[in-house]
Specification:
Shape: elongated
Largest sheet: 4 strands, antiparallel
Oligomer: single chain
CATH class of the largest domain: Mainly Beta
CATH topology of the largest domain: PH-domain like
Number of strands: 7
CATH architecture of the largest domain: Roll
Distance between the termini: 31 Å
Order of helices and strands: EHHEEEEHEEH
CATH superfamily of the largest domain: Pleckstrin-homology domain (PH domain)/Phosphotyrosine-binding domain (PTB)
Length: 154
């Protein structure tokens, strides 16, 4: 089938997980690492030294994996007919949310994320489904765009 003849959704806007959402976690991990390394100076026991190294070698790769996985796989697409949410292979697929099905669109974020202009958007449908999209840049604008689409489709 040709792309021109395809009944696929036409993308109008893409958003995804903003890497700035990992900044608070990186700061916390940095403080924990600094504390562990500083504590290592005061511990002469080999068990404590090994624990410190293991924690640092597990903490940073895990944090980097989660941040990279979300930045690469979390996509939120506004199309001509529906909202499409994809969270990668570690999560169940989310069925397309037609604009006429949208009942409520909320957005928000905590005080740290609001300083970075990132937050979450939650879409609730008329059939009771709810989808939360975390770590979006400018969540208020994204939520307003969804509200406008839902209002136009009604």
């Amino acid at each position: 089938m040709n792309r021109i003849d395809s009944p696929a959704y036409r993308d109008e806007q893409w958003r995804g997980y903003d890497l700035r959402a990992t900044i608070p976690w990186l700061v916390l991990a940095g403080l924990l690492t600094a504390g562990l390394v500083a504590g290592r100076v005061f511990f002469s026991d080999l068990t404590d030294a090994i624990l410190t190294v293991v924690l640092v070698l597990v903490l940073w790769p895990a944090l980097l994996f989660v941040g990279c996985y979300r930045a690469i796989t979390y996509t939120y697409r506004i199309t001509d007919r529906a909202l499409l949410v994809d969270r990668g292979f570690l999560h169940r697929p989310v069925p397309p949310i037609q604009y006429r099905e949208i009942a409520v669109v909320d957005h928000g974020g905590n005080w740290i994320y609001s300083r970075l202009n990132i937050g979450w958007v939650r879409v609730s449908t008329t059939d009771g489904r709810s989808v939360r999209m975390p770590s979006l840049r400018d969540p208020a604008a994204f939520a307003q765009l969804l509200r406008d689409r839902a209002k136009a489709a009604a």
